[in-house]
Known about the structure:
Largest sheet: none
Number of domains: 1
Structural class: mainly alpha
Amino acid sequence: xxxxxxxxxxxxxxxxxxxxxxxxxxxxxxxxxxxxxxxxxxxxxxxxxxxxxxxxxxxxxxxxxxxxxxxxxxxxxxx
Length: 79
């Protein structure tokens, strides 16, 4: 799941002319330089890929703030 998410982030950054920081370690999602459109595209693409929308799940409590939280959110719902 991690590689899928990172690939999508890179693709969106390229498409939206955003310069990404190095995607190593636990990156703060606000540090990506993404605006709300970029995040909307990311979550829509991840929903298309996984068939799930964990942001609308009954047990969703808070928006992920780091890369590891984002990955965990999708790994939990895909399993």
